[in-house]
Every structure is written in C-alpha cells, then in structure tokens.
Design goal:
With about 170 residues, this protein is α+β, with helices and mostly antiparallel strands. The protein is built from four helices and five strands, in the order H-H-E-E-E-E-E-H-H. Strands 1, 2, 3, 4 and 5 form a five-stranded antiparallel sheet that branches. Strand 4 and strand 5 form a beta hairpin. The model has no long low-confidence stretch (mean pLDDT about 80).
C-alpha cells in the first residue's frame, strides 16, 4: 500500500528558504569584502618589495621599511619606503601603502647612473601586487564556506526534526 506524496511540506520549504538565505548573505558578504580595506602593513610592504624585485630579476636583501609620503602628481600619497641592498649598493623602493604598485625608486649613483638597469626599472614600474586584496579574497572565501556549513547544518537539523515527527 502507498500513501500519496504530500509534496513539499513546510519543513522542505523552510530548509530551502534557509539555504537560499544563507547563500545570499554569504554572497553579499563576499561582494562587500571583495574590495580592499586599509593600508599595507610593513610586513606586506616587504613582501611586495621582495616579489617586485624578484619579478624584475634583481637579487636583493630587503631591509626594514619606514613610513613616508610621496608627491604623486600633486597628491601626497602614503608610502612605505623599503630599503634594499643590491650587490653592495643601496636602493629604496617607495611602495604605495594603500595601492598595488611602486611609486618611486631611489637608485641614483653619484656619477648619474643607476643601480638597476632600464629593463629592471620598467619591470618594477609594471609590477602589480595587492596583498590586502589577496587577504580579503581569502577572508571572503572562508565566510562563504562558513555560511554553507551553517546552511548544511540547519538542513540536517530540519531533516532530523522532520523524521522525529510522528507519522500520520
């Protein structure tokens, strides 16, 4: 003997609504968290400089950055001034503290030449890396996974509750 299928009951509708709500909240949070927020830390400025110099093919030992400003076309931009030793010569890369690029390279020598080659300079000028966006993307992904876990746990709890109801 069979019973007719009662169709989607209130438990299924509630489960579907909870899953959709959790996913919408997670997606909205990921969209809002997808941008960058704040300024680089000194550690992130060091990581930026190491990556940039490596990308430019320059072997260097990077030092401890200091906070500063740089006049970028009439606007004072906050920067991390990151010193480095290339061979036996000192350079300093001014990294945009709230951006993803280097704004200035101090590598001039007394004789008017430069420590870095023109090719390395161009590679540094083209280099882009945003450690804040990278961290925010990871945070957003973790938030999405958390919301999905909550939705699955809620679904399991609702299914368990439905099973516990007496059959009519």
């Amino acid at each position: 003997m069979r019973r007719p299928d009662p169709g989607p009951g209130p438990g299924r509708a509630l489960l579907a609504g909870a899953v959709v709500a959790a996913l919408v909240v997670a997606a909205f949070g990921a969209l809002l968290g997808g941008g960058r927020d704040g300024v680089m830390s000194s550690e992130q400025a060091v990581a930026f400089t190491e990556r940039a110099l490596e990308e430019a093919g320059v072997a260097a030992v990077v030092g401890t950055p200091t906070e500063g400003t740089f006049d970028d076309r009439g606007r004072e931009e906050p920067v991390w001034v990151v010193p480095a030793i290339v061979g036996v010569r000192r350079i300093a890369l001014s990294v945009d503290a709230d951006g993803d690029k280097a704004l200035n390279l101090a590598d001039g020598l007394v004789d008017g030449s430069n420590v870095l080659s023109e090719e390395a300079f161009v590679a540094l000028a083209r280099f882009r890396y945003d450690p804040l966006a990278e961290e925010t993307t990871l945070t957003s992904a973790l938030a999405l996974l958390g919301a999905l876990a909550v939705a699955l746990a809620l679904g399991a709890a609702l299914r368990a509750r439905r099973v516990a109801l007496p059959a009519l």
